[in-house]
Design brief:
Radius of gyration: 30 Å
CATH superfamily of the largest domain: UvrC, RNAse H endonuclease domain
Structural class: alpha+beta
CATH architecture of the largest domain: 2-Layer Sandwich
Helix content: 40-55%
Number of domains: 5
Strand content: 15-25%
Length: about 600
């Protein structure tokens, strides 16, 4: 038990020296564990609230009882406080903070405005000022459908710059009237830039007369008997009509907003978020914050907004289903207006978002119940001391010893933890055809980096008794008393569902055919197999794009790209003179001589 009076005394000592400025504070226990990370416009005023124990929920009272010391970081403004808080929460994962598992990067539409002929493409990653971005879209499917329609409507190119610069005749996209052919001069730069501006205006909801203008141009082309141009304009009008028909009337007045609703049901909290841009619903996604016991709905929602919008670009408006006490602080920190509505179209949208949140909870609860049943059966069948919280599944993949990799997949009661997946490149060519040796190397490297935070309850191997013995041999110096090691081998005729399971000191056995636990075990093994095969194929595919240029010392990705863009192929580079090589930007005389000598010695 913790002494609440002692913890309160430590808190009050730090209140006296706390700064009255914006910043971040850390509450730290006796064993240096970070209990809580918080942000505040005025640190002293904020932490003083924790001294009024009678107003705190039980969860925070327990936290105060464990405080030994506090640390403060002063920052220049609320936005910086939000960023620092998020970084520290990700680093320390404090037990009293509400945590958000947010490993999603949403796809966007991007128009590269830094080139003479900008390109329309899907994009994920950090933003650059010279480009225009539209989104986010909740799924690749949603962004693909919009790209498809915009290509028909605005005829913008979607090819890579290296392809664009080296085209000699129009590609298939031009033939099917989804590109205007700027690569081979089928459209002037001025006319292409007009198409780009029309696309930007349309995506930002500014050009409402575009269809009427296109109709007038189509009629003019028809009157001049320029039927080919008239057909292109007709197809663009149809595409624009198709895009606009997908716009929902209830979203018509919303230019850029995220609509969020929080629902608590069956002890599960779901925050559903809808992305609405230029009157169009770009999709929705649910989030399930953790460590929310004893926290109010408003506290959970405030924590979510802070975590989410430090990793994602905020829209102009964030529409919530409830008022927040710290709304003004969050608006300054996030850089967006935070609004609520009790009536009208936007209130109706909020009800739709709430209904989606409830449905997401129902699906989550059903999935959790099924997973819990499977884990309880897993515990019983394999004689585990407790319900497994971390199951690591291992598999190897190679192509006759080439591009050999080992893969680790992690399963938890919440499903597959993809952030914990790992791959191990097997560089020792002497063992790449030996599955036993590969498995030994993978497990040896994994256990060398193991600590208390990522120790598995179960190790699941794709293999038979040989792999099981090899792993036990390589891990003989580790304490495996509380880790179950299980190997899965294929059954008769390699039929799924008839696998054999092997454990040290126990006879091999199989599970009831087509039973839920058998399906669960297959799912674990198949996920490891999928991840291993996929990683192996990516590594093998990457090697295809390597060339002799990669072997020249001092030639990195940028210089390689510039050389290939200038000469068109490695063969042309190999035949170039030193003087020709120097014509490429960034290639000095010394570097040109190095390249020339490589190909001619």
């Amino acid at each position: 038990m913790f002494d609440i009076k002692q913890g309160l005394a430590h808190l009050q000592e730090h209140i006296k020296v706390a700064p009255e400025k914006p910043g971040v504070y850390r509450m730290i226990a006796d064993n240096d564990e970070v209990l809580y990370v918080g942000k505040a416009k005025n640190i002293r005023k904020r932490i003083t609230a924790y001294s009024h124990l009678e107003k705190l929920p039980l969860r925070l009272q327990q936290m105060v009882a464990q405080i030994k010391r506090m640390e403060f970081i002063i920052v220049e403004n609320e936005a910086r406080a939000l960023l620092v808080e998020n970084e520290l929460i990700k680093k320390f994962k404090p037990r009293y903070n509400i945590l958000l598992k947010d490993d999603k990067t949403f796809p966007h539409l991007m128009i590269d405005m830094g080139t003479d002929y900008p390109c329309l493409r899907k994009y994920r990653g950090s933003r650059q000022d010279k480009n225009k971005y539209f989104g986010p879209f909740a799924s690749v499917l949603a962004v693909n459908s919009v790209v498809d329609l915009l290509q028909k409507a605005f005829l913008l190119r979607s090819c890579r710059d290296s392809v664009f610069k080296n085209r000699e005749r129009p590609c298939l996209m031009y033939q099917i009237k989804r590109c205007s052919g700027p690569c081979v001069g089928r459209i002037s730069q001025e006319d292409y830039q007009n198409l780009v501006q029309e696309a930007v205006d349309f995506l930002e909801g500014r050009n409402t007369k575009m269809q009427a203008e296109l109709s007038a141009k189509m009629q003019e082309a028809s009157d001049k008997m320029d039927y080919e141009t008239a057909l292109v304009l007709r197809d663009r009008i149809r595409a624009l009509t198709s895009v606009q028909s997908g716009h929902n009337v209830e979203y018509a007045d919303i230019k850029s907003a995220d609509v969020l609703a929080l629902v608590r049901k069956n002890n599960v909290i779901c925050i559903q978020i809808f992305f609405i841009r230029s009157g169009q619903n770009c999709g929705n996604t649910p989030y399930f914050p953790t460590q929310t016991e004893g926290a109010s709905d408003e506290e959970v929602l405030e924590a979510f907004l802070g975590r989410f919008y430090t990793g994602h670009l905020p829209p102009k408006e964030i529409i919530l289903d409830r008022e927040l006490e710290n709304r003004a602080f969050l608006e300054k920190a996030i850089g967006a207006r935070i609004l609520t509505y009790s009536k009208g179209k936007k209130a109706a949208i909020l009800k739709t978002v709430q209904a989606n949140a409830e449905a997401s909870i129902d699906r989550k609860v059903a999935l959790m119940a099924g997973t819990k049943n499977n884990l309880e059966e897993f515990q019983r069948i394999f004689n585990l001391p407790h319900l497994p919280q971390r199951i690591e599944i291992y598999d190897n993949s190679h192509n006759q010893g080439s591009f050999a990799i080992g893969a680790m997949v992690v399963a938890t009661p919440d499903g597959f933890d993809k952030k914990s997946y790992r791959t191990f490149n097997i560089k020792n060519s002497e063992i790449t055809n030996d599955d036993f040796a590969m498995m030994k190397e993978v497990l040896s490297r994994r256990f060398a980096r193991m600590d208390a935070s990522n120790k598995p309850d179960v190790i699941l191997l794709d293999g038979g008794k040989g792999q099981l013995s090899a792993v036990h041999e390589c891990l003989k110096d580790y304490d495996l008393s509380d880790i179950a090691i299980i190997a899965i081998s294929k059954g008769p005729d390699r039929n799924a569902g008839k696998e054999f399971y092997h454990m040290e000191g126990r006879e091999s056995f199989s599970l009831p055919f087509q039973s839920p636990i058998a399906f669960y075990m297959q799912n674990l093994r198949d996920e490891a197999h999928r991840f291993a095969i996929g990683t192996h194929r990516k590594r093998r595919a990457k090697s295809i794009y390597k060339s002799r240029v990669d072997e020249i010392e001092g030639i990195g990705c940028r210089r390689k790209r510039d050389l290939l863009n200038y000469f068109g192929s490695v063969e042309e580079i190999s035949q170039a003179t030193v003087k020709d090589l120097q014509k490429v930007d960034g290639i000095s005389k010394k570097t040109a001589e190095k390249i020339h000598n490589y190909f001619h010695n």
